[in-house]
């Protein structure tokens, strides 16, 4: 490590963030983490008390390390408020993640109090402040007090965050950039990027050296074109807001149940925060919600955990109330109560339609990870599981499953159950 670290900004001057010229190595993670926190804050090196590291393993893309300085006489809550998270990117993940867009998303969220402050970036990762709280498990996501808090927070995201912070102007003459932007007469009706253009870029990154790979990619391209045409113009709850600032990765490990202010213990009403904004992209709200519901099953794809209709309706009620309160204008005061029921009905229909799309999204992602990742996770099998969710949904949608006399998949049965 040298003393020549310097400020570095994102495109268009959106963010000026200190850059530490250092490459984190997983082979000696504690040494790397120690070098980074010592450079970030010299007091961590000179002040009394040890530096302690906690390695998190919930993610299957990055490695995440929490660094704390255990100064004598400090309470755990005080230590945690000064803790630093060090996130090292997985090797090759720039193929699937736009790191500059991630920084823009994090910066906007932090400016609005919806994300921990960014502290620095290094050659292959980020450092940011720790949010004291409990990391969710898939089982936690199914608890009413948790999923209602998630619904309210997600409604706030979708209602208040401008997508302009994470969009750009595509070259409409270049493919695949112009695909799925709703281009007509030289104008686009959808933002760029969006969830469809992201999936298009992922498909373009898949290997195509064998006939089997080319056939698979062609099938994926055809399905994506159909999805984009069928669902790409899904109307939002507010006119002109068909695409919202979406997290696109609300798995359990990215939901933090915060501690009550000034306390270390639990409380009845505990708000949640969302972390890790690598995939934040404009998308229909129904996609972001369906994507979150898919994560109730966890990485093990335990479809018995998928929310039932009654759970989903309860979620929508809390989501709509929050969304409306964060998008309300002077002219909306009377309309809000009138629209509430219709909003819930509309959202229910839309999320039902999107319920198979997350399987397609993460199935493609997993095929790429199977090529590039050095993390010990069976991405190939995971890809098969997630893509099977998509095909099961489509078989219900087009009636082919029933016509062929096949049994409904467990995931579809669970989704269709009332309670």
UniProtKB/TrEMBL annotation:
Pathway in which this enzyme or protein is active: Phospholipid metabolism; phosphatidylethanolamine biosynthesis; phosphatidylethanolamine from ethanolamine: step 1/3
GO molecular function, one term: ethanolamine kinase activity
UniProt xrefs under InterPro entries: Kinase-like_dom_sf (IPR011009)
EC number(s) recorded for this UniProt protein: 2.7.1.82
SUPFAM superfamilies: Protein kinase-like (PK-like)
GO biological process: phosphatidylethanolamine biosynthetic process
Family annotation (PANTHER family): CHOLINE/ETHANOALAMINE KINASE, ETHANOLAMINE KINASE
Similarity annotation: Belongs to the choline/ethanolamine kinase family.
Protein name: ethanolamine kinase
Organism of derivation: Baudoinia panamericana (strain UAMH 10762)
